[in-house]
Design a protein that fits this description.
By secondary structure, the protein is an alpha/beta fold. The protein has two domains: about 270 residues, Aminopeptidase; about 110 residues, Alpha-Beta Plaits (2-Layer Sandwich), CATH 3.30.70.360. The protein is built from eleven helices and 16 strands. The chain has an eight-stranded mixed beta sheet. Strands 10-12-8-13 form a four-stranded antiparallel beta sheet. α4 links the parallel β3 and β4.
């Protein structure tokens, strides 16, 4: 990896910030200590900012050489509700919460990049917008920035995510779909109670819900082309009050995933159709409620080529992965990408000689090779300057 002297000098500060955030993970929409630390750092740097919610922060650096393009750089800030299992001095100080997805690294890296860009503001035109976004893990955090107009006039939006499946020194930047949409749905089934010895007098909501679980799988197996990836998953089924009573009510929770808006709309409509038809078939009623978490993450072709060129100068062409496999995870950064040309890069953080750096995301042992943060910081800086100088 090749990083500039100005990035290298921030190494200690960058790692220190990452470890501070790692020690203070917080739940989505409750990132209060995290936000206070971000504001403290921005104020030290003389960077103007505003609150878009109690935990959503938008900063701004305006180039001194006049008007120009507007580039937005984004990080996510929330932690996960799980225990930190690592035996390290920077382990979580908040029982029941852990940074097991890398958002601590993202926040620290963007702050370090902001420091460098602020120091270079006399050298560029245009504007850098800094988005410190809460609640990525549950969706909805990106809405603050979109709904309050902070993507207006933005020419490019860029974000980085660390990933333990790639070695430190590698980066994946792939054109097109890279992550799926994510929608949550809840199904409420209403039947009619009766004694189990007289099932004909009732309408069994549990039986109907069970049939829905089976029938909904036909969307992927029989309604979706094998070349179009989609998921319909049911994670919760609750029903009944007692073993000898025909269940009058049942509730299901699930998710759908897809890589195109057309496929997303089709799958969600089929969920509604199958639920209604299954309930009617057995004499019950059902209601489906969808919550829109995130559309697919689709890297813009032009922005992707720009980011790949920047990455080649940092990682070397041989270490830039341009054919990354699509993942059925989701990220509401896609909300911002729907507003302008955007690109999402994945920086490898696995090192064979460093404990836990190969552990999967959302595991209590998850950790990263902190050396990779330097290249991540350089990516932020160089992608912004590509458009501003």
């Amino acid at each position: 990896m090749t990083v500039t002297a100005e990035v290298l000098k921030e190494k200690g500060h960058l790692i220190g910030l990452r470890r501070w955030f790692h020690q203070h993970p917080e739940a989505p929409h409750a990132e209060f200590k995290t936000t206070a630390k971000i504001v403290e750092e921005l104020e030290k740097l003389g960077i103007t900012y505003e609150y878009l919610s109690p935990t959503a922060i938008a900063g701004k650096i305006i180039g001194k050489k006049g008007a120009g393009k507007v580039i937005a750089l984004r990080s996510d800030t929330d932690g996960l509700k799980m225990e930190d299992l690592k035996d390290v001095d920077y382990a979580s100080k908040h029982p029941g919460f852990c940074h097991a997805c890398g958002h601590d690294a993202h926040t620290a890296t963007l702050l370090a990049a902001a420091k460098i860009l602020k120091e270079k503001e006399a050298e560029f035109t245009g504007e850098v917008r800094l988005f410190f976004q809460p609640a990525e893990e549950v969706g909805g955090g990106a809405d603050f920035f979109v709904d309050q107009g902070h993507l207006k006039e933005v020419d490019r939006v860029f974000s980085v995510h660390v990933v333990s499946s790639y070695e430190s020194g590698k980066v994946a930047i792939t054109e097109g779909p890279v992550q799926a949409s994510s929608d949550f749905f809840e199904i409420e089934v209403t039947g009619r109670g009766a004694h189990v010895s007289t099932p004909e007098q009732g309408v069994d909501a549990l039986y109907i819900a069970s049939q829905m679980v089976v029938n909904l799988q036909s969307i992927v197996s029989r309604n979706t082309a094998p070349t179009d990836t989609a998921i319909v998953g049911i994670g919760v089924l609750e029903a009944g009050t007692q073993y000898n009573i025909v269940a009058e009510h049942a509730r299901l929770e699930g998710t759908t995933r897809a890589f195109t808006m057309k496929q997303r709309d089709f799958v969600n409509q089929r969920v509604e159709d199958i639920v209604a038809q299954t309930a009617a078939l057995f004499g019950g009623e059902a209601k489906v409620t969808f919550s829109d978490f995130a559309p697919p993450v689709v890297n813009d072709p032009e922005a992707t080529k720009e980011a790949q060129a920047v990455a080649e100068g940092i990682f070397g062409k041989e270490n830039v992965i341009t054919n990354q496999e699509k993942a059925l995870g989701a990220d509401d950064f896609s909300m911002m990408m729907n507003e302008t040309k955007g690109v999402y890069a994945y920086v490898g953080t696995y090192h064979k000689d460093k404990p836990n750096t190969g552990v999967s995301h959302h595991h209590g042992l998850f950790d990263i090779d902190e050396e990779a943060l330097l290249a991540s910081c350089q990516l932020y800086v160089d992608f912004a300057l590509l458009h501003l100088t």
